Amino acid sequence: MKFTTILCLLLLALPGLTVALGKTAPAGSHRVYAARNHSLSTSDENVFNLADFGAFGDGLADDGPALQAALDALGEAGGGTLFVPAGRYIIITPVQKDFTGVASDISILGVESLTPVPPPGSSGEVLSRGLDLLSEFAPRTGEQGIAINVSGLQTFLIKDITFIGTPAVITDALITLVLNNVWEATIRHCEFYGLRSVLEGGDIVLSVRSHLKV
Predict the structure, then answer these.
(1) What CA–CA distances, in Å, run from 127 to 116, 130, 131, 151, 171?
(2) 210 with 177: CB under 8 angstroms?
(3) For 145-173, how does the pLDDT look when each residue is reduced to its tens digit (9 = 90+)?
(4) Are the C-beta atoms of residues 99 and 72 closer than 8 Å to each other?
(5) Phi/psi at 47 (5° precision)
(6) Residue 177: CB partners within 8 Å, gap ≥ 6?
(7) Are 57 and 151 a contacting pair, CB within 8 Å?
Protein backbone atom coordinates (compact mmCIF):
# COMPACT_ATOMS: atom_id res chain seq x y z
CA MET A 1 0.00 0.00 0.00
CA LYS A 2 1.40 3.39 -0.97
CA PHE A 3 0.36 6.77 0.32
CA THR A 4 1.80 9.91 -1.19
CA THR A 5 0.45 12.36 1.36
CA ILE A 6 0.10 12.40 5.11
CA LEU A 7 -3.53 13.32 4.53
CA CYS A 8 -4.26 9.98 2.87
CA LEU A 9 -2.62 8.05 5.68
CA LEU A 10 -4.65 9.88 8.28
CA LEU A 11 -7.86 9.38 6.38
CA LEU A 12 -7.37 5.63 6.32
CA ALA A 13 -6.43 5.52 9.98
CA LEU A 14 -9.45 7.60 10.99
CA PRO A 15 -12.23 6.99 8.46
CA GLY A 16 -14.45 9.63 10.04
CA LEU A 17 -11.76 12.30 10.03
CA THR A 18 -13.06 15.74 9.15
CA VAL A 19 -10.89 17.80 6.85
CA ALA A 20 -10.68 21.43 5.79
CA LEU A 21 -11.92 24.65 7.29
CA GLY A 22 -15.46 25.57 8.23
CA LYS A 23 -17.47 28.43 9.71
CA THR A 24 -18.61 28.63 13.30
CA ALA A 25 -22.37 28.15 13.37
CA PRO A 26 -25.05 26.00 15.02
CA ALA A 27 -24.64 22.27 14.34
CA GLY A 28 -26.97 20.92 11.69
CA SER A 29 -27.49 24.23 9.91
CA HIS A 30 -27.59 24.17 6.10
CA ARG A 31 -28.15 26.53 3.24
CA VAL A 32 -28.05 26.30 -0.55
CA TYR A 33 -25.27 28.26 -2.23
CA ALA A 34 -25.97 31.42 -4.11
CA ALA A 35 -23.81 32.09 -7.13
CA ARG A 36 -21.29 34.19 -5.19
CA ASN A 37 -20.93 32.32 -1.90
CA HIS A 38 -17.27 31.59 -2.58
CA SER A 39 -14.21 33.48 -3.70
CA LEU A 40 -11.94 31.22 -5.72
CA SER A 41 -13.82 31.11 -9.02
CA THR A 42 -13.73 34.09 -11.34
CA SER A 43 -16.50 32.62 -13.49
CA ASP A 44 -19.36 33.03 -11.04
CA GLU A 45 -21.84 33.76 -13.81
CA ASN A 46 -21.66 30.10 -14.89
CA VAL A 47 -23.50 28.07 -12.26
CA PHE A 48 -24.62 24.54 -13.12
CA ASN A 49 -26.67 22.00 -11.17
CA LEU A 50 -25.56 18.35 -11.28
CA ALA A 51 -29.20 17.21 -11.33
CA ASP A 52 -29.68 18.97 -14.68
CA PHE A 53 -27.21 16.53 -16.25
CA GLY A 54 -29.23 13.45 -15.31
CA ALA A 55 -27.70 12.66 -11.92
CA PHE A 56 -29.98 10.73 -9.56
CA GLY A 57 -28.20 10.96 -6.23
CA ASP A 58 -30.17 7.95 -5.04
CA GLY A 59 -27.23 5.81 -3.91
CA LEU A 60 -28.00 3.24 -6.61
CA ALA A 61 -27.53 4.65 -10.12
CA ASP A 62 -24.15 5.34 -11.69
CA ASP A 63 -23.84 9.12 -11.63
CA GLY A 64 -20.34 9.13 -13.12
CA PRO A 65 -21.60 9.98 -16.64
CA ALA A 66 -23.68 12.87 -15.28
CA LEU A 67 -20.69 14.30 -13.40
CA GLN A 68 -18.57 13.92 -16.53
CA ALA A 69 -21.17 15.79 -18.58
CA ALA A 70 -21.32 18.56 -15.98
CA LEU A 71 -17.53 19.02 -15.99
CA ASP A 72 -17.53 19.00 -19.79
CA ALA A 73 -20.17 21.77 -19.73
CA LEU A 74 -18.04 23.80 -17.33
CA GLY A 75 -15.15 23.46 -19.73
CA GLU A 76 -17.28 24.62 -22.67
CA ALA A 77 -18.48 27.58 -20.58
CA GLY A 78 -14.93 28.62 -19.73
CA GLY A 79 -15.22 27.77 -16.04
CA GLY A 80 -17.69 28.29 -13.22
CA THR A 81 -19.44 26.45 -10.41
CA LEU A 82 -21.11 23.05 -10.19
CA PHE A 83 -23.71 22.76 -7.43
CA VAL A 84 -24.28 19.24 -6.07
CA PRO A 85 -27.75 18.85 -4.50
CA ALA A 86 -28.36 16.67 -1.46
CA GLY A 87 -27.97 12.97 -2.25
CA ARG A 88 -25.48 10.14 -2.60
CA TYR A 89 -23.92 10.12 -6.07
CA ILE A 90 -22.37 6.78 -6.98
CA ILE A 91 -19.28 7.07 -9.20
CA ILE A 92 -18.88 3.77 -11.03
CA THR A 93 -17.76 5.24 -14.35
CA PRO A 94 -14.45 7.12 -13.88
CA VAL A 95 -14.64 10.89 -14.34
CA GLN A 96 -11.72 12.72 -15.96
CA LYS A 97 -11.47 16.30 -17.18
CA ASP A 98 -8.46 18.25 -18.40
CA PHE A 99 -9.36 21.96 -18.45
CA THR A 100 -6.08 23.08 -19.99
CA GLY A 101 -6.73 25.88 -22.45
CA VAL A 102 -10.51 25.96 -21.91
CA ALA A 103 -11.07 27.04 -18.29
CA SER A 104 -9.01 28.31 -15.38
CA ASP A 105 -11.36 28.38 -12.35
CA ILE A 106 -13.74 25.61 -11.27
CA SER A 107 -15.68 25.08 -8.04
CA ILE A 108 -17.73 22.07 -6.93
CA LEU A 109 -20.04 22.94 -4.05
CA GLY A 110 -22.42 20.76 -2.06
CA VAL A 111 -25.31 21.90 0.09
CA GLU A 112 -23.57 24.10 2.63
CA SER A 113 -23.44 22.82 6.19
CA LEU A 114 -22.68 25.36 8.90
CA THR A 115 -21.60 22.69 11.38
CA PRO A 116 -18.13 23.81 12.47
CA VAL A 117 -15.00 21.72 12.18
CA PRO A 118 -13.90 20.51 15.65
CA PRO A 119 -10.85 22.35 17.01
CA PRO A 120 -7.37 20.84 16.67
CA GLY A 121 -6.60 18.26 19.32
CA SER A 122 -10.19 17.01 19.60
CA SER A 123 -10.67 13.36 20.47
CA GLY A 124 -11.35 10.75 17.82
CA GLU A 125 -14.93 10.47 19.06
CA VAL A 126 -15.49 14.19 18.50
CA LEU A 127 -13.79 14.13 15.10
CA SER A 128 -15.98 11.24 13.93
CA ARG A 129 -19.26 13.06 14.58
CA GLY A 130 -19.20 14.58 11.13
CA LEU A 131 -20.17 17.87 9.56
CA ASP A 132 -23.83 17.11 8.70
CA LEU A 133 -23.04 17.23 5.00
CA LEU A 134 -25.88 16.34 2.64
CA SER A 135 -24.02 16.03 -0.69
CA GLU A 136 -22.01 12.82 -1.08
CA PHE A 137 -19.79 11.24 -3.71
CA ALA A 138 -19.40 7.46 -3.33
CA PRO A 139 -16.55 6.16 -5.50
CA ARG A 140 -17.01 2.61 -6.79
CA THR A 141 -14.53 2.45 -9.63
CA GLY A 142 -12.67 -0.43 -7.98
CA GLU A 143 -9.06 -1.49 -8.33
CA GLN A 144 -8.46 -0.12 -11.82
CA GLY A 145 -10.21 3.21 -11.70
CA ILE A 146 -9.53 6.77 -10.57
CA ALA A 147 -12.93 8.05 -9.47
CA ILE A 148 -12.43 11.78 -10.19
CA ASN A 149 -9.42 13.21 -12.03
CA VAL A 150 -9.24 16.99 -12.53
CA SER A 151 -6.33 18.76 -14.21
CA GLY A 152 -5.14 21.93 -15.92
CA LEU A 153 -6.62 24.69 -13.74
CA GLN A 154 -5.53 27.90 -12.08
CA THR A 155 -7.89 27.41 -9.12
CA PHE A 156 -10.06 24.50 -8.03
CA LEU A 157 -12.33 24.47 -4.98
CA ILE A 158 -14.37 21.55 -3.66
CA LYS A 159 -16.45 22.29 -0.59
CA ASP A 160 -19.17 20.72 1.54
CA ILE A 161 -18.88 17.29 -0.07
CA THR A 162 -18.55 13.93 1.68
CA PHE A 163 -16.52 11.25 -0.09
CA ILE A 164 -17.86 8.03 1.36
CA GLY A 165 -16.82 4.41 0.97
CA THR A 166 -18.94 1.28 0.69
CA PRO A 167 -18.96 -1.17 3.63
CA ALA A 168 -17.17 -4.50 3.03
CA VAL A 169 -15.49 -3.21 -0.15
CA ILE A 170 -11.71 -3.66 0.00
CA THR A 171 -10.87 -0.98 -2.58
CA ASP A 172 -13.47 1.69 -3.36
CA ALA A 173 -11.23 3.22 -6.04
CA LEU A 174 -7.60 3.01 -6.95
CA ILE A 175 -7.57 6.76 -6.22
CA THR A 176 -10.63 8.70 -5.12
CA LEU A 177 -9.56 12.21 -6.16
CA VAL A 178 -6.61 13.28 -8.33
CA LEU A 179 -5.64 16.93 -8.74
CA ASN A 180 -3.05 17.36 -11.47
CA ASN A 181 -1.44 20.63 -12.59
CA VAL A 182 -3.71 22.83 -10.49
CA TRP A 183 -1.97 25.98 -9.31
CA GLU A 184 -4.26 26.56 -6.30
CA ALA A 185 -6.38 23.57 -5.23
CA THR A 186 -8.53 23.76 -2.11
CA ILE A 187 -10.49 21.06 -0.29
CA ARG A 188 -12.62 22.87 2.27
CA HIS A 189 -15.17 21.62 4.82
CA CYS A 190 -15.27 18.12 3.30
CA GLU A 191 -15.21 14.62 4.78
CA PHE A 192 -13.52 11.45 3.58
CA TYR A 193 -15.23 8.58 5.35
CA GLY A 194 -14.73 4.82 5.17
CA LEU A 195 -12.64 4.89 1.98
CA ARG A 196 -9.98 2.28 1.28
CA SER A 197 -7.35 1.68 -1.36
CA VAL A 198 -4.99 -1.17 -0.53
CA LEU A 199 -3.19 -1.41 -3.87
CA GLU A 200 0.29 -0.37 -4.91
CA GLY A 201 -0.03 3.20 -6.15
CA GLY A 202 -3.39 3.64 -4.45
CA ASP A 203 -4.42 6.82 -2.63
CA ILE A 204 -7.44 8.66 -1.35
CA VAL A 205 -6.33 12.12 -2.49
CA LEU A 206 -3.37 12.52 -4.86
CA SER A 207 -1.98 15.97 -5.64
CA VAL A 208 0.46 16.09 -8.58
CA ARG A 209 2.24 19.34 -9.53
CA SER A 210 -0.44 21.21 -7.57
CA HIS A 211 -0.53 23.50 -4.56
CA LEU A 212 -3.11 21.78 -2.34
CA LYS A 213 -4.67 23.38 0.73
CA VAL A 214 -6.88 21.32 3.04
Answers:
(1) 11, 7, 9, 31, 23
(2) no
(3) 999 999 999 999 999 999 999 999 999 99
(4) no
(5) -120, 120
(6) 147, 148, 150, 158, 163, 204, 205, 206
(7) no
**What are 126-151's pLDDT values in tens digits?**
877 889 999 999 999 999 899 999 99
Length of the chain: 214
Compute how many other C-beta atoms are within 10 angstroms of the C-beta atom of residue 108. 24
What tens digit of pLDDT does each residue of 17-73 get? 333 333 334 445 554 444 334 334 444 579 999 999 999 999 999 999 999 999 999
Handedness of CA 75, 79, 5, 167 (dihedral sign): negative
Cα end-to-end span (Å), the chain: 23
**Sign of the dihedral through C-alpha 164, 66, 83, 107:** positive
